[in-house]
Design a protein that fits this description.
Two copies of one chain form a homodimer. Chain A is an alpha/beta fold and 381 residues long. Chain A folds into two domains: 6-12 and 259-379, Alpha-Beta Complex (Aspartate Aminotransferase, domain 1); 19-258, Type I PLP-dependent aspartate aminotransferase-like (Major domain) (Aspartate Aminotransferase, domain 2). Chain A has 14 helices and 14 strands. The two termini of chain A are 30 Å apart.
Chain lengths: 381, 381
């Protein structure tokens, strides 16, 4: 039994030693030259990860804080925003807009399904004075990815609407070419596919987004125009979380060294191995095949099995931590984070622990069938 | 020459190895049992540091973010708030209230002086419908501490007003008995006198503050009622910056081990040694004696000396980093952070570097007089 837990929840995820070690670099003056050098390095590599020539910012705040920040800057009270809601985090997106005083046009879909481009088009055409469309690209609560995001980007471009994208749980693990797809504001967080500890949010801002932001009365800590001003000096307006900036710098260097394409392919391969294993075990992934996430594997709990007990066995006997569902699907599904350092090793260790824990609960399946199916997927490479 | 820089800016400050090491603990599930245990430990020791039986919260955000959070929760648009402004950070307090839509009653004092209780009393009596008084206890930009805060607390208590206190740069290094002085919301940050890296803000909330907060329409990430709800489960609403929570847990344990009284005395002694040295060198502290800070030493730059060059020599030749002024006093003063791990060693090393750098600039003073004066102060203990 290894002592270190394998954290397979959908974030925070396992962090490479290189990144952990970077956090212990000594404190520096965040208004001095050493910080400016790191600022450059982070900015350049963050743009690479976002596939953008637009501005990218890093803020000391969790992913949800990043979303509150972009909403507070891009949306004024009274602005109309289309928000597809198909899980807990897209529900949070709606809530953030509503708390800001925005008028939400909510497009509901069943949890486990994805909103479609035609739904968005219909809403855009049916509504007057829409300012923005806010899409959660990867719904962490259901393991669903909005695969029609490129088409949605065409619609927002055609109609001169802002496209705000929450890519908290898949940027770096799935494709999000911000410029190509016309994403005006893309948001992610440090602790998911970038394999960095939690505490930072990153977001990209297009010229079109800046035009809107400049007209909005902004909050204080979250004022993006101030961030833009301080960026000219290679500083942040307020004290940055230095150890996390060190860690992010290292984590982004690792993204660059691996190459984004390779990194996305690695996430995709591991996720396909997970889905193959889940199906071989006679279990069903929550989402349909065409909208399944690369980074969050959600599947239905079989009848007669106790969700908490399965996870307890995996944790205590096999040192693998996975998650239940979130919100209304809490007991109904399991969720596995397929993020960051994920490779064949972690994938197989997790499936092995899952098989053993399910067997303990009396669930019937062909022994080793999950492992075998995952193995086969890896051998295809 | 030692390789490691001594960071003597007014935060972030030097962090003990024990605290740095804590950051490299492996990632955990922030909804799991290991986090709950740490949550208990942090909460208990934070209450000790705040000298309060009220609730204390920790948020992933810088100190300014913490201020924005408490303002967003305690103040509604239209609420009248008295804000003494006597430096850059009290100016920020005013700005945060104004951005929230609050009506600011600004009490201006010259930079380097402190607002008095009688000024506050006059404003309270002269204005109708005041909801809160927002005082920056330690003005980091000028090295001034509001020594009449206990009397201000009596005024707000008598008049049933909320007392919001920014103690970002001195909690843990100076006295702030939150309950005794009637502080309704006290805010600090991790990277100052608690000797932890930056990235977290801590705040206390009194029952009177809760009554006000419950009536305010709140932002989303910053919703304190949500924080209170999640605290019942020993969790934070959104993903916490785990490594910084580990670090804060360790840093607060160190506060407890040393004892708050001892810790405050240590800060006071070192600050008195600094002031003695500054005066012995023929330089003048910016604030009058009765409002000088324990934690930020601000003193006027002598004529004929270049601010940037003095600091460059201290940094490059002696590995000691201090700060210039902030805002309109940028070139006119120097600022030294007297925070966290500060002891006789760091104090003398800083004074030595300062003496040498001033001598390089042709400034005339009695050699070693600063060191001697500081030494004498330490020998008095």
């Amino acid at each position: 039994m290894t002592e270190k837990k394998l954290i397979m929840v959908p974030g925070p995820t396992n962090v490479p030693d290189r990144v952990m070690k970077a956090m212990t670099k000594p404190m520096i003056d965040h208004r001095g030259p050493a910080f400016k050098a790191m600022f450059d390095s982070i900015t350049e590599n963050a743009k690479y990860a976002f596939q953008t020539r637009n501005d990218v910012y890093v803020l000391t705040v969790s992913g949800t804080g990043g979303l509150e920040c972009v909403v507070g800057n891009a949306i004024s009270p009274g602005d109309k925003v289309i928000v597809p809601v198909f899980g807990l985090f897209s529900g949070r997106a709606k809530e953030a807009v509503a708390r800001r005083g925005g008028r939400v046009v909510e497009l509901q879909s069943t949890w486990g399904t994805a909103p479609t481009a035609s739904q968005i088009r219909e809403a855009v055409e049916g509504e007057k004075d829409v300012k923005a469309v806010f899409v959660v690209y990867n719904e962490t609560s259901t393991g669903v990815t909005v695969r029609e995001l490129p088409e949605i980007g065409e619609i927002t471009r055609e109609n001169s609407l802002l496209l705000i994208v929450d890519a908290v749980s898949n940027l770096g693990g799935d494709d999000l070419p911000v410029d190509k797809w016309g994403v005006d504001i893309g948001v992610t967080a440090s602790q998911k596919c970038l394999a960095c500890p939690p505490g930072l949010s990153l977001f990209s801002v297009s010229p079109k987004a800046w035009e809107a932001i400049e007209k909005v009365e902004k909050p204080f800590y979250f004022d993006m125009v101030e961030m833009r001003e301080f960026t000219k000096k290679k500083e942040t307006p307020f004290t940055p979380a230095l150890p996390l900036f060190y860690a992010l710098d290292e984590a982004l260097k690792m993204v660059r060294e691996e190459g984004l394409e390779n990194r996305i392919r690695r996430h995709r391969t591991c996720s396909e191995a997970f889905y193959a294993a889940v199906e071989a075990l006679g279990l069903s992934p929550l989402p349909d095949k065409n909208v399944r996430s690369n980074t969050v594997i959600a599947f239905n709990k079989p009848e007669g099995v106790d969700n908490a007990k399965v996870r307890k066995t995996m944790d205590e006997q096999y040192n693998v931590v996975i998650s239940p569902g979130a919100g209304k699907l809490k007991d109904a599904i399991f969720r596995i984070g397929c993020m960051g350092i994920i490779s064949e090793t972690e994938t197989l260790q997790t499936i092995d622990a899952l098989e053993n824990a399910l067997a303990d609960q009396g669930y019937k399946f062909k022994k080793d069938s999950g492992l075998k199916a995952a193995h086969e997927r890896f051998r295809k490479n």
